[in-house]
Give the backbone structure.
Amino acid sequence: MQNGTLTELFVRWTGKLGLNYEFLATGYEAQIWRDGFVTTIYLVLLLIPVSLLFGVLFAACLTSGKPWLLAPVRAFVEITRNTPTLVQLMFSFLALNTFVSNLLGGAQHNPLTPFFWVVAVVGLHVAALHAEALRAGIEAVPASLVEAARGIGFSRLEILRYVEVPLAFRTSLPAIVNNLINLVKLTTVGNAIAVSEITYASIMVWTQRDNVVELMLVILAFFSLLNFIVARIGKWVERRLAVPGYGI
Amino acid sequence: MTTNADTAIVRLEDVRLAFGQTEVLKGIDLAINKGDAVSIIGPSGSGKSTLLRCINALVTPQSGRITVAGTRVDQLTRESERIALRKRVGIVFQQYNLFPHLTVLENIVLAPTRILGVARQEAEKLARELLEKVRLSDKANAFPGQLSGGQQQRVAIARALAMKPELVLFDEVTSALDPETVGEVLWVIRDLIRDGMTSILVTHEMRFAEEISDTVVFTENGRIVAQGSPREIFHGNDNARIRQFVGGLSGARGSVRDGEGI
């Protein structure tokens, strides 16, 4: 097979350099490892929109001026910002998930998977960081501009949607891209609850093959590449949204 | 000016408003006829801008009656009712306040399409007509940051007109402009008034107020000190304070345009 010979060539060539990628020629381990990449990419693609959506929602609550919206979101933002994501994930999976299972009469009835908990915990954690960045951006929108929008007849929500969020998104974009880069790296906490993203998959392989350095090299290169792409897209969006004459 | 309940589009009766301990309006009575142009003049801090904001419910006075085009503004309790009023009353501000992230055309069509539900095509057609009216047809795709102050202010006027308002409030719309661009904005307002748009202007442009107004109102310390025809206020007036104010302004027109005025 063409693919097989290419893999064999790679294994032989890296072997000469003293690197052990022999597992690639096997079926099972190579499959786990490849799936690890796919799972990580899948997590990233899902988490970016989830975090942004909830970030906007949280920011809207934080700037609403309504105590019953503000207080719970503020409390959530503080808790999630100030505690380790790993601990949040373990708490969610070991405590909340068990609670849900008990509520539904047994784990077999619980539809929530470890994958779901990674998306929920990391997504909301990064959303809290987005929310703070967006809040700063919303508060930076001149009061006179908001008054003008009110004067035209926009409602509070319409002002948020058509004026404040578009402007706040532009001012907070560098901070949001930073958060997204962190998000990509945060997906690795999934390995604590057996979500087989790339670090988990790699651990599966290297405990059998004793090739930590070889896999680490690939993991580091992989995350560097992912975040290089995220940063480039961020820059591109920043340029696309740049507004002439507006100091952003 | 003689006014009765049938012809007045705006009527304020004993309107009083305070921000905390500071009394800003101390009993304002004012009636404005449909189609009239009314200029409100007076020293800064006399409550002119606040008075305008009472008319479209951007601020709510503590007491008094305000009737605008058949709506008792002082009795509105819900924000949705105030919003319904504001859609019918245009307002243009000193600082233009265009949406900086939208092109000129988008600035004008945003409110009609998003909050009045006008079809995009129709809104765009009206926007282009209005741009022609304010002589900025070639700037439809420019961003506000690429325009001069005078051009931005003309777009702001077009944006207000796109809502097809029953009256328009102008809040010191030339005060932030370079002296060279004041004229082009006044031109547009003059056209509008000639077309019969009910207009209420807070202004420091005395010569302009004299030229275009049906009524001039002089406010000081939260009260209307005098009101009448431009002739009465600017020439036949025996009130020394008004003469001093008007005289002071015409002696220092350049500086008045640059800043807050007297």
